[in-house]
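[job 0412] stage=complex_fold ligand=8Y4 status=START
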Amino acid sequence: IGVRLRCGHHDLDLSRPRVMGILNVTPDSFSDGNRHRELDDARRHAERLLREGADIIDVGGESTRPGAEPVSLEEERDRVLPVVETLVREFGALVSVDTSTPELIREAAAAGAGMLNDVRSLTRPGALAAAAGTELPVCLMHMRGEPGTMQQAPYYAEPIEMAVVEFLRQRVTACAQAGIPRERLLIDPGFGFAKTLEHNLRLLNRLSALEALDLPLLVGMSRKSMIGQALGRPVDQRLPGGLALSVMAVERGARIVRVHDVAATVDAIDMAWAVLQERSDHE
Ligand SMILES: Cn1c(SCC(=O)Nc2ccccc2)nc2c(=O)[nH]c(N)nc21
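[job 0412] stage=complex_fold status=DONE, emitting structure tokens
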């Protein structure tokens, strides 16, 4: 399938799997609020991600860790916009912006962002209209509830893959009604969002159920607790587990994987892709 996504000034060719590198601009508790240093750190981190082969840099200013407190618009704007402007201006990078906030959706697009990545699937008031106005591709992701409470007792009456497909189907319809055509959409099952380990494992095994929506599939499992729960590894020792998950996701149809460790993931999915391509070479 020669799917090409128009991402601002970039054409993203999804005929083979792509890697989205994670650039966190949520200051950790040690940061002293030195904006200049924070921007410099972000610039250096992005440069490394690009050098390692990232096709997209994902920039997020709001922590969606379970229990994280909400961030103000000003704070999110101050963290995200300077980084987007810098990465676009200095590296010509394809920048994806993680935000659910209509104002930031508009401002990030004006700053040169090439893709929108909203873990809340444009459900906030005004978000659909804001996204429609940007002409940018949008990734819609499954989550039930809010990051602060979503992991308390995730329960689904129906099989998890059905809950995910139905939710995303509704969001695709909402986008169509708001003037965001299918050509601009990506979907994502939201691993780790309002899901138990069981839910996450079943969802990966049945990832092909999302083919029913016939849209490019983005997944993010890098360093997440599903790896910690399955392997008993702390967050800084989850690369091998994450590589296994990225390869399995690509085998089951994922076209973009959102990861911290770009170089290793590029080789792992390119190797998997070489094997998968052999199937079609003689079919
Ligand atoms: C912004 N964003 C996030 S943040 C959660 C995260 O990385 N937690 C985490 C990171 C490191 C260690 C443990 C947990 N996850 C996704 C995803 O799976 N898909 C899309 N589209 N966007 C996403």
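The mean pLDDT is 95.
[job 0412] exit 0
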